[in-house]
Amino acid sequence: HYEANNNVDDKPRANKRRDMNEAHASMLLDIAKEQPDLHLDQISEELENQCGVQYDPNLCYRELKRRGKVLKVMARVAAQRDEYSRFLYWEEITALGVRPDQICFLDETGVDSRLRQVRGWGNVGERVELRELLHRGEHISVLALFSFTGFLDFDHIVGGYSGEDVLRVFEDMVVPQLGSYDLNESNSVVVCDNCTAHRMYEDALIEMVESAGARLVYLAAYSPIDNPIEMGFNVFKACWKREKWLEARAGGYRV
């Protein structure tokens, strides 16, 4: 700079503001609220498009942090979720007047047969290797029954569940676990996920459950937030990796 200009004045800075007024800060907060998945440079660019002033991404970060915004893991919420349907579900549960131990939840999750721990102990600066037979992973579906006290039972198959598979699981696994709703017994209300396979033979499932003296209720569509089994599945998968629950055998797998 000295050789080019023959002076020691400060080097001219880029045309970027070093502070942010309230109006632009309000725009910044609106951008972060409406598009929370943008990167800082994208936020800066969008802010410039709206207000005509270029702000450095670092300034945007400091301003967001000063106003209580932090970078967090996002929870994906289905746009198809209907809050009125959720209201009707909770209204139905409330009308049944049940205790927590009377409700059990049925839902499906999926894991890869290669699911393993990804971290291991080793020396600093050295790669950690674990020698094992590698194979092409298969998708394992697990259909589990979850209650106030934890998992009651589960079924698993390679691939996804069909309507016929769900019928089999209800007959062999779910119904034997159910109590009588009229006698206020435990596990007397089954809350079932609203996926297509669970609805395919809805009338037959309702008849099967009610013949055991229990009740069947379906969750609102796209509402896993109302199903506590999701938290149980998180623990289930962690234990799956830690304890290596899946054992490959001729003709299939054993969990």
Automatic annotation (TrEMBL):
Source organism superkingdom: Eukaryota
Gene Ontology molecular function: nucleic acid binding
Occurrences of domain Tc1-like transposase DDE (ranges): 103-244
Protein name per its UniProtKB record: Tc1-like transposase DDE domain-containing protein
Species name: Octactis speculum
Lineage, broadest ranks: Eukaryota, Sar, Stramenopiles, Ochrophyta, Dictyochophyceae
